[in-house]
Amino acid sequence: MNVLSISKSKYMAGLQCPKLLWTHYNAKDLIPPPSAATQAVFDQGHKVGDLAKQRFPGGLEVAWADDIAETVRRSKSLIKEGKPLFEASFMGDGVYARADILEPVGRGKWDLIEVKSTGEVKDVHIPDLAVQRYCYEAAGVPIRRCHLMHIDTKYVLKGRVDPKRLFACEDVTDKVADMLPEVAGHVGDMQKVIGQKVCPKIAIGPHCSDPYPCPLAGLCWVKVNARPCNVFSLYNLRGEKKWALYEQGIVENARIGDAIALSAAQQIQIAAERTRKLHVDKAAVRAFLARLRYPVQYLDFETFSTAIPLVQGTRPYQQVPFQFSLHTVAAASAKPRHTGWIWDGQGNPFAAMLDELRRCLPDGGTVVAYNMSFETGRLTDAAKACPTHRAWVASVIERMVDLLGPFRSFQVYHPDQHGSASIKAVLPALVGKDYSNLAISDGGMASQAYLTAMYAEVPEEQKRQTFEDLEAYCGQDTLGMADIVQALSRL
User: Fold this and answer.
1) 33 φ, ψ (degrees, to nearest 5)
2) What is the Cβ-side half-sphere exposure of residue 284, based on CA atoms within 13 angstroms?
């Protein structure tokens, strides 16, 4: 493909950041391969696309050829058939694009249908469709209407997946038409960027994660953990420390003492970074600890969420529980006692979870979770699915306490948290434990590992090992909460 023929995906990258676009064409070795989590999203998108095609019986798939010119030739040949086309490829006015679905609508015109695995139309989808329409019409394929087909999150799985009910289709022709005049200018600008001998210098900013996480973050942001309205320390490629304020954009090179309105949390972070000392509001910590009543029970759920529902009676993207870990501390001097559960795929996971949790969870005492809204949400969902447990679930939620609280409000903050209040940042900073020695080290990995073990054809030994790894990971979260509370008591 000619270097100045910009693919749809590269066009979208160029809208996000010219540096990313230039790197794709001139230094692509710097772009890391997709992570396992990102690849899982791609794989899910392919499955969604395959289901969408079932809504167009008699459609023709344009086979991909290693040579793009050959794929375009095949597309031009098949378009003469006047049938729905899948993955048809065209080139026009410096753009190359593949259409998810082209539907014939008579008089030589076509409706363009873009399939997304999201639950709604998003702003980023409109330029995606606009550059496609620009390309196809330049290639002699007139487009009548533009549609965005996405997942209908109200769909409930009953029996086999029904592609007609799984998807919603929205006409976005007018929005695409409004953006269409801008495409030619963007393409021209991007062609100039690609042709530059030196990579453009682009300041870091909100575009680094919007609309998609940038794969160059490891190069541009050497050490950063930014959240909106947080101050963080940024180390550039030369190892020079700078201050940056992430609030309504980026203010670079801000120094302590500059005329910048800093929140109390931001001032705490700056002071901790300067002194490398732990910040503790002892009165607030004492008040938090006074809320805990023995037995103290540390609870954590793991869930999976898929665009295509896998469990009868569930909706797309519904959080389906497949695991919990529970560490119980009976008294101040007692050691944590662990129990846990992993769904075996039989029956209703909500009922199975509640039955086992009710058996394991002591009556009375405090139930502690980290970012409690997630756990209460899963309990509430389970109670809706199993009304006989509703009163018991309500009683559990009433005695829950959120361990995230002291860290989210910066009552306790260690500079090694780098602006983050997540347990993955707090545990090593406060206790000295981390997840580096675990085969599964975050929730996304846990979900994907479970789905692979349960829904892919894997050896029984691999499935058994996965369950052991899942138990170790989820157990680290709940034991880590107990360790954090002990650390707060010492403080």
Assistant:
1) -65, 155
2) 13
* DSSP assigned state of 80: G
Residue 198 Cα to chain centre, angstroms: 32
Please check whether residues 272 and 294 belong to one and the same domain: no
Q: Range of 84's domain? A: 6-195
Asked if 469 contacts 440 with a C-beta cutoff of 8 angstroms, the reply is yes
Residue 400 in tokens: 């829950």
In which element (H, E) is residue 378 found? helix 372-385
Q: Are residues 341 and 421 in the same domain?
A: yes
CA 352 to chain centre: 27
Instruction: Examine the domain organization and report whether 375 and 251 are in the same domain.
Output: no
261 and 306 together in one domain:
no
The total of other beta-carbon atoms located within 10 Å of residue 282's CB is: 11
In a domain, 215, yes or no: no
Give just the sign of the alpha carbon dihedral 328, 356, 467, 397.
negative
Question: Using an 8 Å Cβ cutoff, are 327 and 298 in contact?
Answer: yes
0.70 surpassed by pTM: yes
Pairing of strands 320-329, 296-304: antiparallel
CB atoms within 10 A of CB 57: 8
Per-residue pLDDT of the chain (491 residues; tens, 9 = 90+): 444 789 999 999 999 999 999 999 999 999 999 888 788 888 899 999 999 999 999 999 999 988 899 999 999 999 999 999 999 999 999 999 999 999 999 889 999 999 999 999 999 999 999 999 999 999 999 999 999 999 999 999 999 999 999 999 999 999 999 999 999 999 999 999 999 999 998 877 788 888 998 998 777 764 333 433 333 443 333 333 444 443 333 344 444 334 445 578 878 887 887 888 999 999 999 999 999 999 999 999 999 999 999 999 999 999 999 999 999 999 998 999 999 999 999 999 999 999 999 999 999 999 999 999 999 999 999 999 999 999 999 999 999 999 999 999 999 999 999 888 999 999 999 999 999 999 999 999 999 999 999 999 999 999 999 999 999 999 999 999 999 999 999 99
Q: 322 and 462: one domain?
A: yes
Residue 216 forms part of a structural domain: no
What is the number of domains present in the chain? 3
Q: List strand residue ranges (DSSP E) for 343-418, in order.
A: 366-369, 400-402, 412-413
Both tokens of 174, joined, read 């007018």
